[in-house]
């Protein structure tokens, strides 16, 4: 049994944790729970609506956590659900939801865009390529567990 991560993995895990912590702090400062922010962010990333199953898949959060956040946002008049098929629901922003999303998730998206815009384009491309390569390799390893 090998429960001893390499120095590289320790650093990588630390960085991921710190990035998550930064996003948590931004959500907190903007008055949202992490899960509510993820829902709004994912919808903004998609436009003004997004399939519920896509929010679950993109977020990495459990369906139960996403559903709880959606129910709360729905009760606040921020979004509503719309049946697309018997098994699929679209999560749509209301006018109030579009305003809130712009003031919260939109600000985070702007900050992220500013960061990537400040990097040389070849660095952005390399970062994205390496992140995708790590993801694909990890997904392959996951198949063999």
Can you characterise this structure?
The protein is mainly alpha-helical and 145 residues long. Helix content is 71%, strand content 11%. The protein contains 7 helices and 3 strands, in the order H-H-E-H-H-E-E-H-H-H. Strands 1-3-2 form a 3-stranded antiparallel sheet. Strand 2 and strand 3 form a beta hairpin. Helix 2 packs across helix 3 and helix 2 crosses helix 6. The longest helix has 23 residues. The mean pLDDT is 95.
For the largest beta sheet, what order do the strands appear in spatially? Answer: 1-3-2
Report strand %.
5-15%
Distinct helical segment count: 7
Q: How would you spell out the order of helices and strands?
A: HHEHHEEHHH
Residue windows where pLDDT falls under 50 for at least 5 positions: none
Number of strands: 3
Approximate helicity band:
over 70%
Query: Distance between the terminal alpha carbons, to the nearest Å?
Result: 14 Å
Structural class: mainly alpha
What gyration radius follows from the Cα positions, in whole Å? 17 Å
The best one-word shape is globular
- Provide mean pLDDT, rounded: 95
Largest sheet: 3 strands, antiparallel
């Amino acid at each position: 049994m090998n429960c001893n991560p390499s120095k590289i993995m320790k650093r990588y895990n630390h960085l991921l944790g710190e990035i998550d912590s930064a996003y948590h702090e931004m959500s907190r400062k903007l008055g949202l729970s992490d899960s509510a922010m993820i829902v709004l962010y994912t919808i903004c990333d998609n436009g003004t609506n997004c399939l519920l199953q896509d929010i679950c898949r993109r977020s990495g959060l459990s369906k139960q956590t996403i559903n709880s956040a959606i129910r709360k946002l729905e009760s606040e008049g921020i979004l509503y659900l719309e049946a697309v098929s018997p098994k699929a629901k679209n999560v749509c922003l209301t006018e109030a939801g579009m305003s809130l999303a712009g003031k919260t998730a939109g600000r985070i998206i702007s900050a992220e865009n500013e960061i990537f815009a400040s990097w040389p384009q070849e660095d952005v491309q390399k970062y994205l390529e390496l992140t995708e390569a790590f993801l694909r390799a990890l997904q392959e390893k996951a198949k063999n567990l």
